[in-house]
Amino acid sequence: MKNKLILIAGILTLTFYPTVSFAESNNFEVPMSITPENNITIYQYKSINGKMHKRLWSVSYNRWVDSSWTLV
Questions:
Q1: Alpha carbons 37 and 29: distance in angstroms, whole number
Q2: Mean pLDDT of the chain
Q3: 26-61 pLDDT per residue, tens
Q4: What are phi and psi of 64, to 5 degrees?
Q5: Any residues with CB less than 8 A from the CB of 58 and at least 6 apart, and which?
Q6: Strand partners, 64
Q7: Who is most buried in 2, 28, 50, 64, counting CB within 10 A?
C-alpha cells in the first residue's frame, strides 16, 4: 500500500510539474491582397468585317498583350 502511494505521488508530481517553454514568436507580416505569381492571360474574340479576330488580354495586369487583332 505504501509503495502505491509513493508511486501515485511521484506520478502526480511529474504530471503537474511546471515546464518552461521557449517558443519563438512568429510575428510576420501577412499581405492584405493575394497577387498571382504567373501572368493570367485569355483570348478575346471579335468579328471584324465578318471575319473572326483574336487578341491576347492579360487578366493580371488589365492590359493587352498583343499589339493588334490577329485573324483566326
A1: 18
A2: 85
A3: 777 776 777 667 889 999 999 999 999 999 999 988
A4: -80, 140
A5: 39, 40, 41, 64, 65
A6: 57
A7: 64
